[in-house]
């Protein structure tokens, strides 16, 4: 058994000690649902990037695999030629077994199914706010008060639907150029200009655009950081999937306002553990995740929105002091005769 996954053809089972040694960039094995795979070459072609799948080289990637792939049977077709065998001794700890049972429970509860009614209502509420942003200027004029009110409303709209689209695929040279993302971007900007240029003129429309982007960006930054700061983020030491995310995230208390204000990102723990679960179901799995954490002695932190914002300010203050310390010049005194 050597570099790059060379092995005895007759061997079909491997110990965890053997598997863990294959964690190099040019020699990658991992385990999914008790089966061992050599992903050394495949990792370079992995749609999600080589770093993502390579992160679990030498480890059990079952929970990460199930978290990011909805159609497991389809993905397994690609895994077949990569399979080396099975794990000789299944060293799954109870925490990993319990988490997989929890995921199975969530599937049985239908928590991975999308509610079209929820998203229809959500879309209607976005359209209503967008219309209000226009009517505010149309009926009350373009003075500072209606202008700033309209900007705030339009900024709220962007938190519900982000018009920024990924253009990385558009910039890649190939036989087929994906134009869907470009079409969405062009539609958004054309609609924006048609609505606001007649009311504000080109100069103030540009100001309006930049201003609501500031509102949108600041809002998004505070919401996302409220679930992570000042959580402890360490180097990966091969923690189980549950522990890995509980030490880097927290939840914000559930309320109608908090759910709306954060776009249900207040259930960040559940979002990390089950990234493909629709946001309207995250609160339903929270009690079960809490129970599992209590069983295994893992801290499950839930903050108020006010406390989460206060923690951001404390973290910024701490970072400022640390930055000042790094930039303070050191003065050396030497005795000269």
TrEMBL record:
It holds the Pfam family Cyt-b5. GO terms for molecular function: acyl-CoA 6-desaturase activity. It comes from Mytilus edulis (Blue mussel). PANTHER family: DELTA(5) FATTY ACID DESATURASE FAT-4, FATTY ACID DESATURASE 2. Its main location: membrane. The chain crosses the membrane at residues 116-140, 182-209. GO terms for cellular component: membrane. SUPFAM superfamilies: Cytochrome b5-like heme/steroid binding domain. The lineage of its organism: Eukaryota, Metazoa, Spiralia, Lophotrochozoa, Mollusca. Keywords: Lipid metabolism, Membrane, Oxidoreductase, Transmembrane, Transmembrane helix. The keyword Aminoacyl-tRNA synthetase does not apply. Residues 11-88 form the Cytochrome b5 heme-binding domain. It is found in: Membrane. GO terms for biological process: lipid metabolic process. It is an enzyme of class 1 (oxidoreductase). PROSITE patterns: CYTOCHROME_B5_2 (PS50255). It is a multi-pass membrane protein. This is FADS2. Belongs to the fatty acid desaturase type 1 family.
């Amino acid at each position: 058994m050597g570099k790059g996954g060379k092995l005895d053809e007759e061997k079909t089972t491997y110990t965890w000690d053997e598997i863990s040694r294959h964690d190099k960039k040019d020699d990658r094995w991992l385990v999914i649902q008790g089966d061992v795979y050599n992903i050394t070459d495949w990792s370079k072609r992995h749609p999600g990037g080589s770093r993502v799948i390579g992160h679990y080289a030498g480890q059990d990637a079952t929970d990460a695999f199930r978290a990011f792939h909805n159609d497991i049977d389809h993905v397994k077709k690609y895994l077949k030629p990569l399979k080396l065998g099975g794990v000789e001794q299944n060293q799954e700890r109870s925490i990993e077994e319990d988490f997989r049972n929890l995921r199975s429970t969530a599937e049985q509860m239908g928590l991975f199914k999308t509610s079209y009614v929820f998203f229809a209502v959500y879309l209607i509420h976005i359209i209503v706010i967008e219309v209000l942003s226009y009517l505010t200027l149309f009926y009350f004029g373009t003075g500072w008060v209606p202008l700033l009110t309209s900007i705030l409303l339009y900024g709220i709209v962007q938190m519900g639907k982000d018009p920024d689209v990924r253009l990385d695929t558009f910039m890649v040279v190939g036989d087929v150029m994906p134009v869907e993302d470009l079409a969405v971007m062009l539609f958004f900007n054309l609609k924006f200009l048609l609505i606001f240029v007649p009311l504000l003129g080109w100069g103030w429309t540009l100001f309006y655009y930049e201003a609501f982007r500031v509102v949108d960006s600041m809002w998004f930054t505070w919401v996302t950081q409220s679930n992570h700061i000042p959580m402890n983020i360490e180097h990966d030491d091969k923690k189980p999937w549950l522990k890995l995310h509980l030490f880097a995230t927290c939840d914000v208390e559930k309320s109608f306002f908090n759910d709306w204000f954060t776009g249900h990102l207040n259930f960040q723990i559940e979002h990390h553990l089950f990234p493909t679960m629709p946001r309207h179901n995250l609160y339903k799995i929270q009690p079960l995740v809490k129970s599992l954490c209590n069983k295994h002695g893992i801290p499950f932190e839930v903050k108020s929105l006010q406390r989460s914002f206060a923690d951001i300010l404390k973290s910024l203050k701490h970072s400022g002091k640390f930055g000042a310390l790094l930039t303070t010049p050191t003065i050396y005194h030497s005795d000269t005769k």
